[in-house]
Task: inverse folding
């Protein structure tokens, strides 16, 4: 499952005066519905965001009656292009790092370097740490730590090119754009480059910065780099946006086969002029800050996670090479087996931007026998590339249906399903104590590693949403608060898939049976034994369901809990709830 990071807002007070003025007529007078449970259980973070919006407003985004944030950014870029092109160079060029903490194959950084070289100017790089963004985006402490460690590696790599990386903490998230402008003004930087992020808040911020920087005589340049194929490039035969992965993926493959230049790698930046270290000595002395207090790891966690997840783009490149040499050929056979160690373990690096999605797809394509992209799911290279493509797809969904960032399911008609908010059961799920071994093993892996195997993400998500009938957004949120590879679009898309509320042609009655999933994907029980020591002594198939298969004494003696629900009964309840909720919403 590729990523609750309630990462976007429709909160008018967060917008600029120009944005507050509606550009189109609003389709509904009451924008938000009563969200008592959503607020009570922390699904809607009212410190930063508004209540859940009504379905009509969500559909107005979908139909284009309300301007999408990606459209606002594109309009700002187009409207200001001529004026920005006329801005003369200042004393330096700036690249603003965000989710692209690498020097290799980085489009925004490359363009900034080219601009600096053309005018014989130094390149200055910046990263702004926003504790409130970490809080609002539910960024896991393990991911914050990984981000900061990546910055340390990046700073050292850039320093070897006499390029400073200035890192500063901006306590109030609304102050971040203004602080960026202040720093650029103080350095007399007239050209700023950055790579686009596709969450709603970030798109709106960059659209606003494109215009507000221009008012200060600064050319702010947002470029597309995060996806292999830029969102908006692929359309169906009727000119509509794709909402189903398979036809979108076929189009994605065909597009890239026809546009091989999309794979061209961007070289690292050139070395700065020799006097840069003297001119910007204070920037070279900048240290990487500690994690905000609320996002700090314990000493034991630091030791553990640092050993498991070495930071930096060199580690990412090494993992990619190792995977292609040793594992990609068998990926289609091993990818669903959580105990097989058959995956690339690159998701944390892709989320942090220490390696480009373009890079990993290019390298996998070049290693494939056919040297081209296909949707052949019986071939390791193609299967793995197809899994990476999901990341592009979910960002495509995020841009075209932005209300998924606003506490709404992709299918608004699913928003009236009656969910449970049983916190005792939810806690048992989070702690890996549900009495369903495959579920518990996966949740304990997440606690220990800050990571979970993809097949297991689908199993535990289906279990929470359909066996326990607990609001899927609580699980989405929990994942973001604990995953080192937490990415809003992928996490949201994965939870939408498992709860049948997302971009998925499969109906709601697809409900995973945890026992069957366990027997199919962990047949010998190796994964379960690794993460559930209470059951390690069970040698036979009883490990999948110890209380129903003659292993009750072992499970009880070692303190392993009985199942919290009966799957058959839970399945019937889920079918009734979904059917009733959809009928109520569409009546």
Result:
């Amino acid at each position: 499952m590729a990523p609750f990071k309630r990462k976007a807002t429709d909160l008018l007070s967060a917008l600029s005066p120009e944005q507050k003025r509606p550009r189109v007529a609003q389709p509904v007078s009451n924008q938000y519905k009563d969200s008592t449970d959503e607020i009570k259980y922390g699904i809607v973070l009212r410190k930063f965001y508004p209540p859940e919006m009504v379905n009509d407003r969500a559909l107005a985004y979908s139909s284009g009656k309300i301007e999408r944030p990606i459209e606002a950014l594109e309009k700002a870029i187009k409207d200001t292009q001529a004026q920005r092109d006329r801005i003369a160079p200042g004393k330096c060029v700036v690249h603003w790092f965000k989710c692209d903490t690498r020097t290799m194959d980085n489009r925004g950084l490359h363009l900034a370097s080219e601009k600096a070289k053309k005018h014989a100017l130094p390149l200055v790089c910046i990263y702004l740490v926003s504790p409130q963004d970490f809080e609002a985006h539910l960024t896991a402490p393990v991911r914050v730590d990984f981000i900061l460690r990546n910055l340390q590696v990046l700073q050292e790599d850039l320093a070897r090119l006499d390029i400073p990386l200035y890192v500063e903490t901006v306590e109030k998230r609304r102050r971040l754009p203004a602080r960026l402008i202040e720093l650029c003004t103080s350095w007399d930087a007239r050209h700023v480059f950055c790579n686009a992020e596709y969450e709603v808040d970030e798109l709106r911020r960059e659209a606003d910065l494109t215009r507000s920087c221009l008012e200060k005589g600064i050319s702010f340049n947002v470029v597309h780099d995060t996806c292999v194929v830029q969102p908006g490039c692929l359309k169906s035969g009727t000119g509509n946006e794709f909402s189903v992965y398979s036809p979108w993926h076929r189009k994605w493959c065909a597009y890239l086969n026809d546009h091989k230049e999309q794979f061209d790698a961007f070289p690292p930046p050139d070395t700065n002029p020799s006097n840069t270290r003297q001119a910007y000595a204070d920037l070279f002395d900048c240290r990487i800050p500690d994690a905000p207090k609320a996002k700090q790891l314990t000493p034991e966690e630091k030791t553990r996670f640092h050993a498991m997840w070495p930071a930096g783009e060199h580690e990412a490149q090494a993992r990619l090479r190792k995977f292609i040499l040793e594992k990609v050929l068998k990926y289609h056979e091993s990818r669903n087996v959580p105990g097989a160690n058959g995956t690339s373990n690159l998701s944390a690096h892709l989320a942090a931007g220490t390696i480009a999605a373009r890079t990993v797809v290019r390298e996998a394509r070049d290693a494939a026998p056919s040297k081209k992209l296909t949707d052949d799911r019986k071939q390791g290279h193609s299967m793995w590339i197809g899994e990476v493509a999901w990341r592009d797809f979910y960002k495509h969904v995020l841009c075209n249906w932005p209300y998924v960032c606003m506490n709404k399911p992709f299918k608004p008609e699913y928003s009236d399903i009656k969910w449970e908010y049983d916190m005792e059961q939810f806690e048992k799920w989070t702690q890996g104590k549900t009495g369903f071994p495959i579920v518990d093993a996966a949740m304990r892996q997440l606690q220990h590693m800050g990571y979970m195997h993809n097949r297991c993400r689908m199993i535990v998500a289906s279990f929470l949403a359909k066996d326990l009938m607990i609001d899927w957004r609580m699980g989405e949120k929990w994942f973001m608060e604990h995953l080192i590879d937490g990415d809003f679009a992928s996490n949201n898309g994965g939870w939408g898939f498992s709860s049948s509320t997302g971009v998925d042609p499969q109906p709601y009655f697809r409900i995973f049976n945890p026992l069957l999933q366990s027997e199919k994907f962990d047949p010998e029980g190796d994964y379960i034994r690794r993460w559930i020591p209470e059951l390690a002594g069970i040698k036979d198939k009883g490990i999948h369901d110890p209380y129903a298969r003659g292993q009750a004494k072992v499970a009880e003696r070692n303190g392993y809990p009985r199942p919290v629900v009966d799957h058959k009964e839970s399945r019937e309840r889920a079918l009734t709830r979904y059917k009733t909720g959809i009928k109520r919403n569409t009546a």
